[in-house]
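task queued by scheduler; priority normal; single chain, no ligands, no partner chains; default sampling; output format set to structure tokens
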Amino acid sequence: MSPPTPRLRRALLVLTAALAALLCALAPLPAAADSPADTARAAGDGPADWTARPAGGGADRDARPYVYLEGTPGTALQDRLAVTNSGRAPLTVRLRGDGRAGAWIGFAADTVTVPARTRAEVPLALTVPPDAVPGDASGVVVADDGDEEIRVPVRVRIGGPTLAALTVEDVEISGGTIRYALVNRGNAMLEPRLAVRADGMFGTLLDRPERPLPLELAPGRRVERTEPWPDAPALDAVTVRLRVTAPGGARDEAEASATYLPVAPAVGGGLLVLGGLALLGSGAYRRRRTRRGDPEPPGAESADDRQPTTETRPLVKAGPLVKAGAES
């Protein structure tokens, strides 16, 4: 069989490229990799031989989960950090502040050596900048022994009018996962709550009532989160709506749309269409070849058959003339 014509080859290439694009579009996106785990440990979750946490007194000794301070712009606030060495050798730790409020902290000593089986309390002072915006600020105190570190949360309430503002942004739907981002647009610490609803062509597919999220959002902070949807439809056009709220009147909504198509039927349909088009193209090519090379049907006259001819007949030589009758 002769090779396909250039036009047929181009048509097959275009169809193949279109099918490849369709497969790429329908293939599920790989799930995004989780962010690297934070190697730092929270206060109270340190190794058995040493801990760092806010200092306390009386019955509430070491009971505070974080350092909490309140003041107006320009004031200096005092607190203490307790470092406990439960090991059998002296422990040396370095102290520093991190984050917005952490940058306002100064320590009585940046490096502290704690004898074995001893507890040391290190005074710290947090000075609120004179131009600080009223509301909440956060940071951490980092205690580092050279091998590991413990991070102690710090929260500061700055006196003055506060504004609670929260937005939900960048909503995306990918397979059985809903992705979104929360941004604290105000100056108050927020504890967001989330409600999720999804509607398809034939009704509601998902309706999760408002629930608290396991996070606290500091002013200006942005957090990217995911919402699992394990029973997402296989074939439907859906619209997902997210509603977030927080104490203080913060509220926002956002939505995104997506179309779900089953990959296997789509791929099979594409291959079937491609095979049918290829078969039609091959049939057209055979018919074209037959018209160009077929022998002429029997009984057809050729050009030579239509030319006039001269018929030659054999000449008969006449014998002597014999007169009829008997001679006398």
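post-processing summary
- The radius of gyration is 45 Å.
- The helical segments are 6-26, 99-102, 263-293.
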